[in-house]
## 1
Amino acid sequence: MPYNPDFDDEDEDDTPELVKPTPGAIPAITVDPAAIQALVVEQAVAGLVSRLCANTMLRDAVKSAAERAIEKQIDEAIQPVLNDLLSTVTLTKTNEWGEKKGEPMTIREFAAKTVMDSLNELVDYQGKPITDSYSRSSAKRRYVHIVEQMCSAEVRQEVAKAATSLKANVGQAFGELVKNALNDQLKLISGR
């Protein structure tokens, strides 16, 4: 016989009794319509995007475009605040006891000074800072070392190109020379 929930062959009544709660026993539940609307819209958009973006490339393109749009909005919101901070917040150098030493400067000025100090620092032939007085005679400024390294790399590339070209030209010239010499020898041999 199939199960029938309305039919109970037992004599006992094992259904729980419904107890009415006393007022104030259950806390009031408040629902924010805007939050529900945002969740519904989010779920609808997620469902729509997942159906439309069955293709992985399209899904990745949509995701990438969304990330770029979000990053752009964040940048637009943060950039004015960041510019304000870089221009208004000041730093003052102190000694080991916390006493101010030097003039206060903005973060932007401090960054520029730090870069300039680093570029003007004396370095050895490897670009490492000079730590002893013995190496000062061969020392040069870091910016000079950087320019020399860049130029050196370009010069090496040009020399390599010239050497390759020279080898090719010498090989062709040598081939022509051998060919002409052999032709001359063949003419002499065949003329006898």
## 2
Amino acid sequence: MRERLGVALFVLGSTFLWIVPPFAGSLERATPLADVLHILGVATIVVFGAAAWALARDLPWWVHAARWAAALGLVTCAAVAAVDVAVGHDVLLGLDVLAHAAGCGALLVLATVPALRSTLGDRWRELEARRRPWYLD
């Protein structure tokens, strides 16, 4: 189960490529603003990847990496939304940014509230203990 959440973190982080305008091709690459958004996008993807790897390996620092990933993801979403409003692009990008911000907010809550982490961890252990191999059925 831990590995599945790690994959979910990695997928959420990698989809930041779709909303960052320099990657999506909706902003000219020669501007300083495009450079800032590009750096934010790459940093967000790298930190999400590190958090996913740490979670999948059950490393103790995955919580800190997840917090940083969520915070950086929210900053990236805010920057992309600000540029989108200033440039006047489409509504679909705004919905994508909103979905990414909601995912980052949920991750931030999960990584910050210890009761949620322990409850989720207990539930994972319970499910793993009850799961029987297919060949025993």
## 3
Amino acid sequence: MTLQLSDDGAVLAVAADRTKLFDTASSTRLGLLPKGRYLIGFSGDGKKVLTGSGADDSLRVYDLSGRLLRQGTPPLLVTDNGPYGLHADGKTIAVLVANRKVALYDLESGQVTGDHPIKLPKDSTAHKLDWTGDNQVTVRRSKRGSGMRVPSPVFRRSVIVTGAAVDPPRGDRGDRAGWGWAAGSPVAWRGG
């Protein structure tokens, strides 16, 4: 059995044979995801879920009642990489590519819409992407040490998509942060 909480803590996903979604305040079951679909994560607003399948490379987005909203089969750039983060719009997926860039994929159009170089410290592995704002993806990573991964929120980084030009800032540990663009908008790191 696997448990996963939405970022706001309002919804709990319980995965066994099938994934059940529960309201944490009332303990009411909100929905049930189809058999053969596994939960990848919640959207940035916690109102949708991104799922995958062990049978193929398809990605599907469901609302909390289990109703299918969107589906598609992304290109290898997306399916061969990860982790993923689903935007509140239910169609934009951020994916970490080889620990070196964050790509944005539009599930509705089937197109990669952005590509943002990043630099993670050598002693870390990204384990989660979260949309923590309309234009912000937070990369959460674990620090490796003594042969085991230790969660390290101190090393969290955010990709900020803004409408104004930015210079690459310095990270909170003195490392140089990465920057790039998305659909014509600059992207920058913010320590957090």
## 4
Amino acid sequence: MNCDYLHVVPTTTALDALFQIRALISDKETTATHHVLCLTKTNTTAPLQQWLGHQVELHCHYTKSPWIHSLKLLRHFRQFQSAVTVFWDPAQYPLSAFPLLTSKSTRCVSVMTLPSSQDLQFPTMLGQRILQHSHRVIVSSDTLLKKIGAGVSNHQDVIHIQPGFTMPDTLSESCHNLRNQLGLKPTVQLIGCVGEFKPQFRLKESIWMADILQKVKGDIHFVLFGDGSQFEILKRYRDQMWQRERIHFVSPWKMSAELLQQLNCMLTPADHDGQAVGMRIAQALGIPNVAARSDGNAELIHSGETGLLAGTDAGSLAKQIYFILNEPQSANQFGHQAALKYEHPLFLNQFNQALNP
């Protein structure tokens, strides 16, 4: 089987990787064929396939037996030897994915989106080998560029490209009004979070913040756009809280620009070393950003100019959200200044050049 690009992602809920893949697929200036291979599956893949579009074929051969999984991957991977292979976040690959080391692709590129501190300090043997044998490594921030460069054989092969994305302007099958969709009053203020439901994304903080803000500010609700291994854990945690009716979960494959622009603020509670695609979405749509203070987040948000940074605790983040909601003029100015700095064509040009030098 011949194809131009094979994207290998750790799971069907790896939002930061999948959003960038969709952006590459949607590039109208290329006629490349893209295939996406998911190493693990969290939920049904039908919504994801529909969201990616008909231009891409989605593959997922996950089984509980690591040996059967490895055998299926080996057979499947041999069909794409002529493709340019893009390994997304290889430090998160399961050990059963070791057949990926047999790649004889004409070109292999690795991409690091939002690695955890464990991924950086104690990378798996599989992930480290893939990084070292890649022709080029792409990272989402200058902070990661400095940290990952030391672990790759040739530092010149590590480059920084800010994440890009594309999403539908609207979805015909979805409600055009987010508040109506959630059964809320028109006056309710909405705080959004976009990301994979994993421990290092610290989404529990948003549940704590709902309780804090309710005591000082009227009707505030949090909308978590995402999915992942901690989805059921977060739902149970939400259901045990007094403010459980103020926390809503929405599938990431139902997001559209029209829905997201109804948010009053975008929250990133994790102190990432990379740049989260949720922050980039808010930047492009002119939504005020509030994020935990970290080197990666600070590269995108200039506090007091294009958004606000805060400490990593729920109280500090809630304080900055409270300011955004009480000062709509300042919030609009943050969003406007951030939108001026977003350059989608630059992402496509840099990424295509990295894949095809």
